[in-house]
Amino acid sequence: MDLSDCSQTSRYFPGWKKRYCIWSTPAIRKALTMSHLKFIKGVGGVGLGAAAALYFASSCAFGQVQIENQIINPQIVIGINGWLPGLTSLQTNMNNAFGTYIRAESQRILLLHGTSNDVVPSEFVYKCVDSLRTNLFPTMFKQCGGDHVMTQIRLWLTQTIGL
């Protein structure tokens, strides 16, 4: 997936081109390609945004996301009330590219799920977390809701990267 061309977005996220085509902006491309040590790359989202962030992160681990011939790999991934689309093919894709496990291990994933979420059942999120952990993605899962979500994110970021 080459993020310099917005037409590629619709291939991976059908119907999202008009709303979520921010990847092609020069500022985002520049931010993702910066290799400055104090610059931490990350993605996140809520609901479908969390699904897109997890899918993006897994695609990065597979080496499928490149900007200007440089493989992109986020260090931080945060998903709230979301899941990983293509969960069942994760193991197969992990074995298809050189360096996949190294890129997966360098990501830090936080999944938060509401205690009363009827849209995404908890069992599905548990399967997602198990699959990510099995494939060496360092994943923290917390079940919480309401005002505690931002507190959990702040705490996790402080413990994980010292923010």
Keywords:
163 residues; alpha/beta; Rossmann fold; four-stranded parallel sheet; 39% helix; globular; disordered N terminus; AB_hydrolase_fold
Total domains, how many?
Answer: 1
Report the portion of residues in β strands.
15-25%
Query: What summary fits the major beta sheet?
Result: 4 strands, parallel
Termini distance?
30 Å
- Class from secondary-structure proportions: alpha/beta
Q: What is the C-level CATH assignment?
A: Alpha Beta
State Rg: 15 Å
Average pLDDT value?
A: 78
CATH superfamily: Alpha/Beta hydrolase fold, catalytic domain
- Regions with little confidence, pLDDT below 50 for 5+ residues: 1-24
InterPro entries: AB_hydrolase_fold (IPR029058)
